[in-house]
Amino acid sequence: AQSVTQPDIHITVSEGASLELRCNYSYGATPYLFWYVQSPGQGLQLLLKYFSGDTLVQGIKGFEAEFKRSQSSFNLRKPSVHWSDAAEYFCAVGSGTYKYIFGTGTRLKVLA
Amino acid sequence: EPEVTQTPSHQVTQMGQEVILRCVPISNHLYFYWYRQILGQKVEFLVSFYNNEISEKSEIFDDQFSVERPDGSNFTLKIRSTKLEDSAMYFCASSEGLAGEAETQYFGPGTRLLVL
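The joint structure predicted for all components is written out below.
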């Protein structure tokens, strides 16, 4: 069955530190992978997506993610976190039809 | 930039009451969706809607739920007789309807429903 796992429910980093949020997926075919961010009171905003080609994908707000087929992972990274990055981050996979399968989300806290 | 909007942002209702959650998708989009997130759990797919009919629904989307596009702009989710376990954040989304599983979906801010 298709599934997405985000192992970290909460992560706390200091401002300026690097960040990696983990995402593992289970999907039989070539996955279509997405990272969304939800700031308080806001909708889910698309950060980046992977469809094919280059396995390192650049997104908005300085985020990037790397698709590793051998590890079934699509981890999100940022070299230097800003206080405004505090939010909840969701990884999702396109499931073969017009729907997404989401992970449980990772809530990021940024210390000043 | 066009965005998906949802009203209300919060709704409190009594168990057994009917609620209607409203969404305005992006105007040129053809596919519409509802998802929900129970506190502390995954965002779960409820239903997709295309060409004025349900395209796909999950096992969660039972007879208590219905969706409608009553006019050219709104997309609604109705829960006929709410239960305590319907308390959740409900997200509406829309997409162009051209790319299937590769589709980028655009989400609204959500409606937080609390059933007492």
